[in-house]
Amino acid sequence: MKVNEYAPRARRGRSVSKSSNGKSRNSSNSNSRFESRESRFDSEPRQSRSQSDSQFESQPQKQKPEYTGRPRGVFGTLVPELQKAVAAQGYSDPTPIQTECIPHLLDGRDLLGSAQTGTGKTAAFTLPLLQQLDSEPRRPKKGCPRALILAPTRELAAQIGDSLSTYGRFLRLSHTVIFGGVNQFRQVNALKRGVDILVATPGRLLDLMQQGHIHLHEVEIFVLDEVDRMLDMGFIPDIKRVLGKLPCERQTLFFSATMPPKMEELAQTMVRNPVRVAIAPDEPTLKSITQKVLFVGQPDKSALLVSLLNELPASKVLIFTQMKHAANKVAKTMEQAGIRSTAIHGNKTQAARTRALDGFKRGRFQVLVATDVAARGLDVDDITHVINYDLPMEAETYVHRIGRTARAGMDGNAISFCSAEDRALLRDIERLLGQPVPAEMEHPFHCERAYHSSQPAPKNFGRNRNGGGGRRNGGGGGHGRGGRPQGRGRNSHQNSRGRSRFRR
Question: Which CATH superfamily is domain 2-32+64-278 in?
Answer without folding.
Answer: P-loop containing nucleotide triphosphate hydrolases (3.40.50.300)
